[in-house]
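Kindly inspect this today.
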Amino acid sequence: HNVAAESADPDSVLSTYRRLLAARREVEALRRGSYETLDAGDSDVFAWRRAAGGSTAVVAVNFVAAERRIRVPRGDAVRAVAGTHLDPPAPDADGRLTLRPFEGVILTSG
């Protein structure tokens, strides 16, 4: 693949990196601030929280080839900003988030 083909494909690795970098520019907590590992309730998922000023982000990454349902802090993680898929999931009202196989999601509080 070349850059032109990757740029035209919204599911490409290049497009995914561009979405993730745009989220990093948009969310201050992804650039600086505190770091805290979170217990997602599933050892196949690694999750962490970053906070800076009034900005908070929660990142969750599923490392297995099976769907995982985890819990995330409700106040800190209500809106999906970006992810490895074009349609990253948001948590439900109970703070539960369903991640597809090998999916990563960035969530914010607002």
Notes: The first helix runs from residue 3 to 8. The longest strand covers residues 45-52. The mean pLDDT is 91.
